[in-house]
Amino acid sequence: MSDYIQKDAKIFVAGHRGLAGSAIVRKLRSLGYENLVLRTRQQLDLLDSAAVSAFFDEERPEFVFLAAAKVGGILANRDFPAEFIAQNLRIQSTVIESAYRTRVKRLLFLGSSCIYPKLAPQPIREDQLLAGPLEFTNRSYAVAKIAGIEMCWAFNRQYGTSYLAAMPTNLYGPGDNYDLENSHVLPALIRKVHEAKQRGDRSVTVWGTGKPLREFLFSDDMADACVFLLNLPEGEFRKLISSPEVAPLVNVGSGSDQTIGELTKTICNALEFDGEIVFDTSKPDGTPRKLMDSSILFSYGWRPKISLKEGIRIAYADFCAQTATSKACGVKNEF
Asked: Is the Cα torsion angle 253, 256, 259, 265 positive or negative in sign?
């Protein structure tokens, strides 16, 4: 199957310095795409509609990966809901409207698995969108992402655009945020276990009961899936975006999950920490389970390549590199 996107096509990756965007850039370059249009936040403020409009007028990208977003963990979502909804709505609107106006051929919008109801049947299918109440702790972010999906759908219906929304499960990998206050669970646990080991602690404390089930996908696998989707032949791509009754939405997951307790044990093993795991049940658990049904994506022949164990080792090496503690981390050559 030949690629739809020509190797010399001009491609804009919005949010190319983030976890998802940087992985998409790595994937595109590995496939021979070099005509990439990249802008830092200082060079192009995606919250500035006039600046975004002028950028699209000047550059005229043919394809867009919209990976830019304000993101964070449970605490950040709880404490800054106004920023999460306002900034994400503005980014999405400015980029999608400019993409339409300058006739971008295809656009892929990256959402989040938190768009689905808190108690959605498991694994979660795409048709569960708007089928029930959202998890309260990240509702503002989820509503913004749902609006982005609806915007892609509305533009496709009214203007015949080719915009697809991809919903990744929980991501981790190079370039992740390891801040304990506003990161997601896997990178936060890497830092917690690392610091406990460095201090010589005999235990590490984990928020919640350890019972919630979570699915994780290495960021480079996510990027591989996104490029795969945007490269589908026209007929297959149209099937995903042309239904008047079904949102142009595809889940991107690994197909398996584990409890937070099991995840913590895997991280402890990878970091060679043999202390006790203590669960702080006074802290929130969040959604009980969140496993994506990625059967639509899988039906096209795509599968993830990087196991959780391997991915955690790579992520730990990245954490050590970010914090300039490679020697203390004991990073092995294979990393």
From this structure: negative
Per the annotation, the verdict on 141 as an active-site residue is yes
Marked catalytic residue, from 33, 116, 141, 172: 141
pTM value? 0.92
pLDDT in tens, 204-236: 999 899 999 999 999 999 999 999 999 999 999
Contact 209, 289 (CB under 8 A): no
User: What 3 state SS string does 61-121 have?
Assistant: CCEEEECCCCCCCHHHHHHCHHHHHHHHHHHHHHHHHHHHHCCCCEEEEECCHHHCCCCCC
| CA 72 vs CA 28, 53, 83, 145: distances in Å | 26, 27, 11, 14
Lowest mean pLDDT among 14-23, 139-148, 319-328: 319-328
Q: Is 241 helix (H, G, I), strand (E, B) or coil?
A: helix
Residue with tokens 């203590």: 278
